[in-house]
Write a structure and sequence with these properties.
This protein is mainly α. 88% of the residues lie in helices and 0% in strands. The chain has five helices and no strands.
Length: 105
């Protein structure tokens, strides 16, 4: 019995380590991905923006900033909800395991 508990703890540590490594690799891949390859520009849009006056260019820049706000707020909302609920499932599973172990004793 005692050795099984140690094995389970070791398995959990290895699993957490693999998860951490996977997160780091994913983050590095996202940061190192070339932005030019991901942002395929429309030639017509680029030509029109380049030939426009300063007021139109300023309006385009403002429009781009305005269009960035909703996705950023959505991402922040999802991150906040994930942070708030981060331990909900682990706590439920631990409670279930405690109840099961109490029944078996």
């Amino acid at each position: 019995m005692r050795n099984a508990g140690i094995g389970e703890k070791l398995a959990v540590k290895v699993s957490k380590r693999k998860t951490g490594i996977a997160r780091i690799v994913t983050l590095l891949a996202a940061l190192l991905a070339p932005g030019v390859a991901l942002a395929q520009n429309c030639a017509l849009c680029y030509t029109q923006a380049a030939s426009a006056g300063s007021r139109v260019i300023a309006a385009l820049r403002s429009g781009i900033l305005i269009l960035m706000v909703p996705p950023m707020l959505i991402c922040l909302g999802i991150t906040w909800m994930a942070y708030k609920k981060r331990n909900q499932f682990n706590e439920e599973r631990q409670t279930d395991e405690l109840i099961d172990s109490a029944k078996h004793e």
